[in-house]
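It would be a great kindness if you could assist me with a short task in structural biology. The matter concerns a single protein, recorded as an amino acid sequence and a row of C-alpha cells. The record follows directly beneath this note:
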Amino acid sequence: MSQAVRVLVVDDEALVRHALRAFIAGDDRVTLVGEAMDGSEVVEACSRTSPDVVLMDIKMPGVSGVEATRRVLKWKPSCRVVALTTFTTEWRALEVLHAGACGYLVKNSTPDEIIAAIVAAHAGDRVVSPEIQERFVHSAIEAVDERSPEAPTLSDREYQVVELIAKGLSNTEIAEGLHYAEATVKADIRHINHLWGVENRLQIILRANALGIISL
C-alpha cells in the first residue's frame, strides 16, 4: 500500500474541523497531521507538520484563505492546496485558483468526494466541484463575443485593475497595490463591466485573455 497522504486542515469553524478529522481518520489513504484555525497560523503549522495537501477554507478572520494559499506555496511550492468552502461563485474559485490552489470544493461535497480530491490533488491533478465547473463553462460562453474580439479601450489604470484581477487579488489588495481608495477600484470594475459587456471577474479575465491583454 502506498504511503497515506499527509493532510493539514485549515478552518475557523471547530465543527468543520471536527467533521473533517472524523472521516479522514476513517480512511487509510489519508492521515491528518495537523489543524489551523485561521490563515495566520498556516505557515507555522505547515513547517511543524510537513503536509502533502492543505485543505483550506477561504473565508476566515484575519488572513483569508486566498492569502494563506499564497503563503503556503511560498513556503513550499510543491505543497498542494485544495480550497474547501461554502462559496459557489466562479470568481471566488478563480481567485484562489489564481493564488495557486489546485482544487476547489464546496462544503456540501461528500466525505468520499473530499478524500478522493485530496488523493487526486496529491497525485498532481486539478480538482473542482462539478457545480463550479458548470459555472465556469456558462461564464465562458457568456463572455464570448461572436461579433468581434475587439472591445472599447480602457484607461491605463483600468488595464492595471484587469491585470491584478487576473492575479487573483481582491478589491482591497488592488486598492493597496495601486494606492487608490477601494471605492475607486469598485468604480473601475463597474466601468470595465459596462464597457466590455461582462458581469463578473471571471468574464473580465476571459475577455482580457481573448483580447491578448493577459495570458491564461
User: Anything to note?
Assistant: DSSP finds ten helices and six strands in the chain. The chain has a mean pLDDT of 86. The longest strand covers residues 30-36. The CA atoms of residues 19 and 111 lie 9 Å apart.
